[in-house]
Fold:
Amino acid sequence: MENYSRYFRQGDLIAKYLKGELSDQEREELEDWLAQSDHNRALFTKLTQEATINTELTKFGSSDKAEAWEKIVSETGYNTPNHRSYIGKRLLRYAAAAVVVILAGLLLYPFNRQSQPTKPVAQQPTDFAPGSSKAILTLADASKIILDDVADGQIAQQADVVITKTADGQLLYAKNSAANSLEAPITKSSYNTITTPRGGKFRIILPDGSKVWLNAASSLKYPTKFIGNERSVTLIGEAYFEIMPLKNAHKQAMPFRVHSASQVVEVLGTHFNINSYADESMVKTTLLEGKVKVIRTSPDRAESSTEIILKPGEQAQLTADAKRRLNLIPKADLEEAVAWKNGQFQFKDTDLPTIMRQISRWYDVKVDFQGRLPDTKFRGKISRDVPLSQIFQILQLSGINFKIEGRKITVKS
Structure:
């Protein structure tokens, strides 16, 4: 038989939320429950509507609350030695009403609902859809291709390189097998730039087979063919890299170098993430596999390292202030660093401005703050595929309010 204990606990938490009596620990517990699924958020939305809770509260008047409670117990099979004493608790009527709606919601979904789609909260007219796969490719001749508008297949050719958009939404560079082998070898590469807008993301396979995932509001400049003794690209924003080892014509290893804000990351073959947005307080380079060297290119204005060699699980942080300190974080949160690539927002003791910067980029909205911001730190995980209103539901548990005007979000405490 289904164990209903957890639903009674959730009913109790929602009741305390309605009465403004949640402790910090209970608020975190409720936020975690909301972040688990669209179904939970839909129930919470229903429960926080005044009409719903008033309707359910009528079932728990002073004359019939014991009878109604017994009905819940008999229908769910939930029974404990002290369930009668629960009736006398101060929060009974709110908690019982919450439990009724939760259990009623469960009846709309079979208990094997993990294998069935859940029904998300209806998107409001002022809501914002999440970002999607879209980008602009700028070719060496400055012509532009809007990648989300073009059909799959070959979209361009530069010298002996063919550029293809694959069916699974990637940009692929490959040697043209039909190219004339008698043509003079290319001695100088031309450069392309792929740019994701706010609310966009894209994946690309570079000419050497290396894979790059670009986050929203980012760009990557790279050659159409890697020649010489090194491979060099330039990043603005955030990207996750999986670099293929490569040797030149002389059988020498060709290092891969990523140039970003005031630093260069040098690798041979490895997996890593770089977050170098201009509006963040530092550039973060997080290593998941292999080995990389992070080199500070800004003037030496501080007594800190000019370069750091990272091992898997470590992170380099380069401050964005005038001192440009380069610091090593020996135990980085790898899951949080690449959550965006895996389709998640993940927060671990994250402040509100940091969260809103991520929201601004992914949902393509402008964010302003009004009044004094709370010092609240947020923890939780939620899909990046949900409408913005579902994230607001969780943040509002901590007393954060939002005003929407067009694509402008004003955050008020």
The CA atoms of residues 111 and 197 lie 41 Å apart. The first strand starts at residue 132 and ends at 133. The two ends are 44 Å apart (CA to CA).
